[in-house]
Amino acid sequence: MARVVQKFGGSSVADADSIKRVAKRIATTRQAGHEVVVVISAMGDTTDELMDLALEVSPQPAPRELDMLLTSGERMSAALLAMAIGDQGLTARSFTGSQAGVITTGTHGNARIIDITPGRIVSALESGDVVIVAGFQGVSQDTKDITTIGRGGSDTTAVALAASLGADYCEIYTDVDGVFTADPRIAPNARRIPKISYEEMLEMAACGAKILHLRCVEYARREHVPVHVRSSFTTQEGTWVTDLEEGTEMEQAIISGIAQDTNEAKITIVGVPDRVGEAARIFEAISSIEVNIDMIVQNVSAVSTGRTDISFTLPKTDGKAAIDTLNALKESVGFEDLLYDDQIGKVSVVGVGMRSHPGVTAKFFASLADAEVNIEMISTSEIRISVVVDQDDVNRAVRAAHTAFGLDTEGEAVVYAGTGR
Amino acid sequence: MARVVQKFGGSSVADADSIKRVAKRIATTRQAGHEVVVVISAMGDTTDELMDLALEVSPQPAPRELDMLLTSGERMSAALLAMAIGDQGLTARSFTGSQAGVITTGTHGNARIIDITPGRIVSALESGDVVIVAGFQGVSQDTKDITTIGRGGSDTTAVALAASLGADYCEIYTDVDGVFTADPRIAPNARRIPKISYEEMLEMAACGAKILHLRCVEYARREHVPVHVRSSFTTQEGTWVTDLEEGTEMEQAIISGIAQDTNEAKITIVGVPDRVGEAARIFEAISSIEVNIDMIVQNVSAVSTGRTDISFTLPKTDGKAAIDTLNALKESVGFEDLLYDDQIGKVSVVGVGMRSHPGVTAKFFASLADAEVNIEMISTSEIRISVVVDQDDVNRAVRAAHTAFGLDTEGEAVVYAGTGR
């Protein structure tokens, strides 16, 4: 008998019929003898609809009140799901994030989970109940106000609950069959990855893969919670995200997966005087407007001019704010020009195997050259290589790398030396 | 500067525009320097829609979960209203019933308020906030589960809050201008009552007047909270429900108002043997199925037969259950027949003045006779006379009494010896 936390997203409880279908699935797990805690999102587009309603009432809704409003969505789906499970001959009880003991910071709209005190949940589990927890929400440690946990909130809640309950694993149910070696809409040969390490999943998420949120994966890694990302439409195995098994690095496939991101723009500050502190001033200014910078590239200054170019990437949505901030610095820093390019894309190959296999960079760059993709910027970590390319070349680059690293067909790539999970 | 509790119903916050309109009204009160607590119902038909959704998911929704679901409605309107008031240049904060300290029994769907511990509300008021409280809900003292307070819940919450906060008065905003001397749709000459005592309002509510719920009036009477029932569409004075001023009984109008109720049915048990205990057995059986009996009439038994007839009225919706229960007793009690009539109506004249004025019963019955209305049953209290008549005669009876007691025109009835409120 296992203790399991399951998370279902809004599309899987979009209406009464879906709720009943999910209830049957949850009941099956409980009837197999497992203890089950379900974290649930709001039905369908409810959160967006509530947001629209708020904007109809107030152009800038007060954050505390917005959280009070938005959390109604998860409350409703949790209650309805509990009703439906009750009809399966089981007992089920729903809890708000607050009742479940999800304690957070006070930042409305983007609260961080500080701790979880799941006393009431444990009591309910011990009574034999299926427990339903409203996702995406908690209670502020300081003010006791209801908070929402920001993007990926329900996934993160599920993993955090799993950790605090000592659950055996956490299942994230979604629309797709698991994590794929590349986005199947771009690389038709992309395959489901049976097992991927936390580190690799972190890189995939940071580099554009949308299947799991960064915060959720980081939480799972820190607390060593095995996460099973799987489809809510089938009973097939999905992708297990877990610790890397000791000593298996040599047997890892070189590349586990490829991610792409077309939400970034590139800013190049041309002709920055090569004086101590100029780069620091530039990036202090950017960080003061709370823009998240991704890749930074600076070459050595040209001997002839004593100047250098600095390029960095950032979310497109922050582009204007960054340009405005930098323009204000032009006089004082004395750079020559400011270039803005939002027609870029980032392509990343991820794999723990690259730590033990030489030549990955060369192979990657060769595949891009063969596909006639020009590389504009390069950034690497121990287990990831990212390149910035023209936005129109992204898909071709993904497919080229997917083929080059043997991910196209089952036979060529040895994903794991051992058997699959 | 006063401390005021205001309650607004669902129709006054049916959409974004209504919410903004109510927000302006509330802001005006706050800006006049008063401390304001607002109890709010769910928007428009939200509660009904949530109920429909529950029934789509489960034919018999678990009561605990139904309360969790339904309370989302008030949560949403409270948050939206707080946002809108915030846009008026004030600070406003919304609270759930639980956060507001509304402690109740554990009966889901019909919880009773045990106590209110409004600590957080008082702090918010002292900070200068307008406080918005989600109506219709509280938290169970025993289980800490969210509960809904049953019919009239928001009105009762408002009055209970007013009592616990030591508020100067409680305003109940509604669709009509106040409490009327009779239902204006039946008696076109009906007028707004400027001031009515708690006792009279209790009788009016018990006898069919729908403007305020019985529980709410009882709470107000017990805690001596002045209640102002007024229209949310105008700024005119409505009806004040308060204690009767000492020593003013002689000056009271004989009749304050007339109520009618067409939701009852009459059951007559014919030929009950006149033995000790038979009536008791009959009414024990009825009460065991939790049917609320209203009027009971039993005449002395006929000397010749040693039997008597017993009639009583009850809600039409309980009719079948009562008939079935009584039929099961037919053998053991030995009555002769069971008659059921759901084409009845109850008409009641209410007024503290009748304690000090003789002849009220005679005047009432004379007016009914003149209108050719036959009286089937009679029931009285110190300040109320009720008659059961044929349902088709109800409206005529109401108008006849309204005229007979001088309520038709401003000039004839001296409502209060002093000036209006």
Automatic annotation (TrEMBL), chains A, B:
EC annotation from Swiss-Prot or TrEMBL: 2.7.2.4
InterPro entries linked: AceGlu_kinase-like_sf, ACT-like_dom_sf, ACT_Aspartokinase, ACT_dom, AKii-LysC-BS, Asp/Glu/Uridylate_kinase, Asp_kin_monofn, Asp_kinase
Reactions the enzyme catalyzes: L-aspartate + ATP = 4-phospho-L-aspartate + ADP
Pathway(s): Amino-acid biosynthesis; L-lysine biosynthesis via DAP pathway; (S)-tetrahydrodipicolinate from L-aspartate: step 1/4; Amino-acid biosynthesis; L-threonine biosynthesis; L-threonine from L-aspartate: step 1/5; Amino-acid biosynthesis; L-methionine biosynthesis via de novo pathway; L-homoserine from L-aspartate: step 1/3
Coiled-coil region: none
Residues of the ACT domain: 267-343, 349-421
Residue sites binding ATP per the record: 7-10, 174-175, 185
Pfam families: AA_kinase, ACT_9
Name the record gives this protein: Aspartokinase
One of the record's GO cellular component terms: cytosol
Recorded family membership: Belongs to the aspartokinase family.
PROSITE patterns per record: ACT, ASPARTOKINASE
Residues given in the record as substrate binding sites: 47, 74
